[in-house]
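retry 2 of 3: previous attempt timed out while embedding uracil. Reduced batch size to 1 and resubmitted. Inputs unchanged:
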Amino acid sequence: MRPFPNLTVVEHPLIQHKVALLRRTDTSKKLFRELVEEITLLLGYEVTRDLPLEVVQLDTPLETTHGMVVSGKKLSLIPVLRAGLGMVEGMLKLVPSARVGHVGLYREHDSLKPVSYYFRIPDAPELRDFVILDPMLATGGSAAMAVSSLKTHGAERIRLMCIVAAPEGVQHMLEQHPDVHIFTAALDRELNDRGYILPGLGDAGDRLFGTR
Ligand code: PRP
Ligand code: URA
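retry 2 succeeded.
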């Protein structure tokens, strides 16, 4: 398959190991939640690689010097409800001062089209770096709608972090929002006729929250 210019697959062995556990049908809800958080934290290292730094003055026990710190307040995390919620804590462990907004979307069962039901993001979006969190990129409809909503409200710098992506979703994002880079732990084979990712891991929201 030709590599997608808008996609980084983070192939660190620890991530691949945890994704394999995440996929398993016999993985418990508790372990599933823990794995989603841990994978997010590991992916976060790559997603935040070029975050802007600020120079600060600081005192060591010996003298005053300068250090570089992440402009963490400028980073905004946007989990897509519901499944994106499972990724928030992992990212906040890396960047505790990040702001958190929420985008509520669900995929309509038959059409697979996203339906929006909630939107709340931090103020001054034009000044912030946004990372959308959603473990599953399937048709790409939800991610594209989340990005469109952010852009409508003034966001200019947006990335998408997911755990399992389908080629169809990456292609859809490339066509709709080529400026949004996607970071994923796995690029899977294809979608089935109900829009589920194969081999995938099933319904991420249901597995995180114990619904069906
Ligand atoms: C899942 C997932 C994504 C979306 C991906 O959410 O978390 O948001 O599907 O599918 P798409 O790329 O085809 O749009 P779902 O609609 O199942 O909602 P939920 O998280 O509330 O269960
Ligand atoms: N949403 C999920 O949770 N899983 C899929 O495979 C596709 C969409």
